[in-house]
Amino acid sequence: IESDIRSSTRSKTISKTPLELSKKLPMESACPCYDAVLRAWAQRAVQSVARAGKWNTASLCMEQGRNILVNQMMRNQDLSITNQTVSALLNGYSALGQGQKAEALMMEVESLLATSSSAGSLSASSLDVGNFNSVLHACSLSHSVDDVEIAERIFASTRDQTPLGVVSTGSPDNMSPFHIIPPKADLISFSTMISCYCNHGKLEQAESLLSDMHDDASLVKPTVACYLPVLKELGRNGESDAACERILLWLETIENESEERKMKSSRLAYISALRAARDHGRPDVATKILDMFDKAVRGGGGPDLRTYLLALRSFENSHNRTASTEGAERLFRSIVNKVEEGQLSGLNVDAYKILLSCYARAGEGGKAEDLLKELEAKAESDPSLYKPDSRIYSLVIKALALSGDKNAVTRAWRVMSKAGYPYEQETTRLPGTRSPDLTVDVCNNMIKLLGKNSLASDAEGVFNTMDELRILPNLKSYEAILTALARSDDPGTPERAEALVTRLEVSSEMGYADVQPSLLLYNTLLNILANFGRTGKAQRLLERLDRPDRYSFGTTIKAIANRGKSAQQSIIQADLLEKRLQEEETQDGRSNEIVLAHRLKLLAKFGMGKEAEDLIRRKERDGLVPVDMVHYTAAINAHAKSMAKNAVKKAEDLFSVMDEKFDLDLAAYHSLLLVYSNRGNVRMTRDLFNDILSHPVLRPNRITFTIVMEAYVRRKNKHAGERAESLLNQMIELHAAGNEDVEPDRVTHASIIRCKAVSMKKRVKDFSLFERIDLMRQLQIETWPFHESGEVIYS
């Protein structure tokens, strides 16, 4: 019967009931048969949930078991009900985490097993502590907070041996309460109650109970089973510093108890503590735990390779990425040395992945490449353990992407080649086939690297190659390619970006789970539309979004700023968008500093300095938006384009306020420098420029020098050409000294040419072909940086 029920996958009627079979068996043999049937129904209930998530089926199975126990067995006086009989069913409720039903069954059994004389009196419980522990375990696995109260009531009664109230289930007229003395709580009772607290996030109560077990001599002494749930919950605790301190204190307590009892320390406690340190990203704590583990269990049974890897993963999760990389390297080399000395065994590619992840997070591209070479050398002798896989290649490319190295793209292409990325000169594979190491994650990281380096066309090439090789792009693929397109200045970029989003939406509607559109995706598309001033499309996309955030509104205002031709209309649209954001926001109607920055940039575009300054003052009075240095800088930029007579004085006053409130950055100096430069005030421009050069922290960049050159152009200084050449030489010297940000670009060269044109009293477009070639030779540039109209070619 037990096998018949357990193997059944659908509801069916059993031909022989236990009661019918009991007629053919002596009563002393019928009870074990009943126990088997109850276990079978309980197991079937558990399997229904574990395999198919069918909670309704599980409830029916448990109800069938309860019906057999209460209505068949308990009504038959010839059957002896044992603790094993009741536990067969209680264990089912326990595995399903149904604390309330487990308690109800236990109380019902207590009532039915009680004698008639028990009503209104005090008697010993008919069940043993194992059944009570099953109810506690059911409450521990429950998702209901009410079940914690049930567990506390039952546990307190078993621990303190206080009466537990039970209602008699006789006839309705005779229903009366009575009390029982439950069995004495054992070690399992305490450990289960601690687990119940921890599973429901009640860490303070769990630690309090654990402390009571230490301090109260009348209670059972805790074992590692009592510590493990506390250590595990400390790993989930949000207060990292306090949690890690308590982890170390509990480990010291465990060690002291082990010495007092002359017992060997448990590996499980140290492993749980290491997992907690890993989850908190605390390598310093993980290293201490590893040392404690090694000292506590010398002579065998100490830390193995998996334990060391747990400690290594704490570096992977650390918030201090640069410092953690050095510590991860030391621990990794220590692991390798122990393997070579025979102290550890089983080293494989997984350890290299963890260290590579640390390198990737810190942007250590060179170290990642060196580690890949080391791994490849080991793979030649033992490919089964050390052969690099797609995860390895993906991490190396990620490290290169975050490194900021100038040749990172070239080096990443080499890694892509190792992963199996096809090139035209390497067409050894059949069309549509690919290397198993070339996965979507590898391609995504390469697309991110290309996008970061403003190589949108190459990023699109990788994305298209994924289609050719039948590598299905996921959401991260689309987000990465759109981020790359956001850095492109190709006029056709918005249309290609919209086509990509449409493709993703179609794939989503077809049921592909990995390509569900995200708000980040739509915000990136909004940013692309904003960059090209596609105001109408940006506003229509904003209307489509179910829950646009602050970035969505701010980017739409950016689109208005980049496109708006009418100052009044553009400002009205921006005001309406901000008001709508305030209405939809759930956090006290607050606006956002990004939205404020875009509104100020819109005012700066039209040279509305007074309006920009008034907006800042109003936001400061409201206190709803943190007004930062970037907002003051935008207001000064508005004064730079303003035609007001007092614009310079207003800008200088704002700059003084900024100097008192903030540690000024280079952009702040540029804003005031632009105010002077736009008005051709060479003396004030040079004075502020010299302040930047002598600043102890700030370093000028190419924009700094270009603004100064433009001051000479606007002043129409006859020595403008000579001054520009002097500034160019100064840039070359600073660049040779290590300031990479000061290397001249196309815009800088255009300003130099304009300065020379002013000195020659000519217009740029009037230069002859011979003069253009001569200037290009002097500046060592390959292309003329102007259109025929005299406007600068920016790309």
Low-confidence blocks of residues: 9-15, 424-432, 586-590
Shape: elongated
Largest sheet, in brief, is: 3 strands, mixed
SS element count, helices? 39
Query: Mind telling me the C-alpha Rg?
Result: 37 Å
Count of β-strands: 3
Helix fraction by DSSP (H/I, runs of at least 4): 55-70%
Q: What can you tell me about this protein's structure?
A:
The protein is built from 39 helices and 3 strands. A 3-stranded mixed sheet has the order 1-3-2. The protein is mainly α and about 800 residues long. Residues about 10-15, about 425-430 and about 585-590 have low confidence and may be disordered. About 40% of the residues are buried. It is elongated. α36 runs antiparallel to α37. Helices cover about 70% and strands about 0% of the residues. The longest helix has 26 residues, at about 25-50.
Structure summary:
The chain is 68% helix and 2% strand. It has 795 residues and is mainly alpha-helical.
Secondary-structure topology with pairs:
Elements: H1 2-6, H2 18-22, H3 27-52, H4 55-73, H5 83-96, H6 99-113, E1 122-124, H7 129-141, H8 146-160, E2 164-167, E3 177-181, H9 187-199, H10 203-215, H11 224-236, H12 240-260, H13 267-280, H14 283-296, H15 305-316, H16 321-340, H17 349-362, H18 365-381, H19 383-386, H20 390-403, H21 408-419, H22 440-452, H23 456-468, H24 475-485, H25 493-509, H26 519-531, H27 535-544, H28 550-563, H29 567-584, H30 593-605, H31 609-622, H32 629-641, H33 647-661, H34 666-678, H35 682-693, H36 702-715, H37 720-736, H38 746-759, H39 769-779
Parallel strand pairs: 1-3
Antiparallel strand pairs: 2-3
Helix pairs in contact: 3-4, 3-5, 4-5, 5-6, 5-7, 6-7, 7-8, 7-9, 8-9, 9-10, 9-11, 10-11, 11-12, 11-13, 12-13, 12-14, 13-14, 13-15, 14-15, 15-16, 15-17, 16-17, 17-18, 17-20, 18-20, 20-21, 20-22, 21-22, 22-23, 22-24, 23-24, 24-25, 24-26, 25-26, 26-27, 26-28, 27-28, 28-29, 28-30, 29-30, ...
